[in-house]
């Protein structure tokens, strides 16, 4: 039995979205159980033999500061859900709440794995190969050192090897050119560390990749700092929305184009499905001593259920143990001498 | 008469693309003259009353290092073209050559304007409003301080106000959230400097924007460091290519979809036109004591001609003087005390 703790109050829609997703998920996975965490009144009507309500008296708002979420709302549904993972009553927690608060609470309660300074958010972006490219970090860390990027690469490799049949996934370092001399000092140092890790057999490092490679699917994993990853993700979402809206407007321009739209229905449906980021909802918070998955705040029931699936897959496949094993194997590389670590960031302040 | 110096040898295709573009451009603008810079043998057959060949004996390769381009090839077509601007024989130079080399040579020959530490590359990205968002920097500077971002904002505002009818264009600071507390230390400081500039009446600062806002068209200008800007640009190009290819494949799947494609022709043509980055080809190198425009290396004749148009518009509208005037006006803000400037970058090394 795989048990997930679900923060039913999180996200833009709360129980209205999370509860239908939970019910559908339970119907689909007979070996899954859910701990539904939230205000009792909101969850009172949900009954299922494999669902248990766990009461929380507070809710972290989408606009709450990390300070408020962490220090003031100690009985929030988000925190209680993560506590279930810490206590071992659930194998993973899922929340659609405020990312900053989720990361802070998860880090505070669960702590990071040995060898990992900072957790990262790993998400999937659909690519031209019909699969998805795993990109991390998507926004947890706005300033990263070369060592952090190496840690992200190790964690991302573990994630992809666990959740797909690909034992040795390729890693690309997001840069502004393919040549090793490109990029800022942090990126160049990251390239050196990643090449060293590849030589030691800890990583399948492809080399530098550029923004377009995320969609080409050049590598299974793309590593970048959270600022860059977040901008890349949101820029893509913006362009995708623009194109979908453009097609909607143009195809409804007149009777002729409306007829064309009807005939183009199979193509447009396939495009819509390919561009549907709901299918890829559920980003892993990697590097913690416990599994936590983040759903998009605006997720609908279909999207939220994908996040539940992802958490279930990760728990069933022992993602945590396997990430830990990968990190332990790469430990000599991750343990960079302090003076070297300092040195790598020095040029940033020049 | 507006005279442009054209590096006819630059880009992936050289004279095969640049010469037809030059001819078409000359036919369209009766008050324009061109200095065609390149190897005599390559330009021998081009004759036009308003075109003059300027001989250069070398060509900067797309893979040449900045060192080679700057120190070894002193008679390159790229350098000779920029020299025309320095000497005053041309009002602007246009090249499709290697970006790093172009920036280095332009900076070496022309020098930066007072108050500007680093030139930036400003390009246009089509937005949902039917216009284009001007984004800078697109890759000239991989590490930027808050002061650099302020300089980019001032230069970008001058560019847009000169090349459009918008006297007071809005500026957004690319960030990972709208709130002023978001982002790394450099971005937060940039926000402070931009707000101060807005209060002094030197800028129309909107506030933070996110990646999707580039395509929404939330602001006329989006300011970011060159690493982030380059990733955002290439990520968008990758997604756009994926969608266009997807539609091509899906619409040619069978007789029925081929028929749908024929009926959808007006819509697909409109989409292709909207997504056609050739129309927006020609990025300005801002902050130099002379006008230089960079065409995409893979530009075809249509795209290269757009870069010529852009350079012509900039020259005719006295972009250089107007950028200079804006910078002079904002000089008290740009002249940040040295210790304060140091302080702003300090947290980056923490």
Automatic annotation (TrEMBL), chains A, B:
Pfam families: FA_synthesis. Pathway: Lipid metabolism; phospholipid metabolism. The keyword Lipid biosynthesis applies. One of its GO terms (molecular function) is glycerol-3-phosphate O-acyltransferase activity. Keywords: Acyltransferase, Cytoplasm, Lipid biosynthesis, Lipid metabolism, Phospholipid biosynthesis, Phospholipid metabolism, Transferase. It is found in: Cytoplasm. It catalyses: a fatty acyl-[ACP] + phosphate = an acyl phosphate + holo-[ACP]. It comes from the Bacteria. Catalyzes the reversible formation of acyl-phosphate (acyl-PO(4)) from acyl-[acyl-carrier-protein] (acyl-ACP). This enzyme utilizes acyl-ACP as fatty acyl donor, but not acyl-CoA. NCBIfam families: plsX. Homodimer. Probably interacts with PlsY. Belongs to the PlsX family. This is Phosphate acyltransferase. The lineage of its organism: Bacteria, Pseudomonadati, Pseudomonadota, Betaproteobacteria, Burkholderiales.
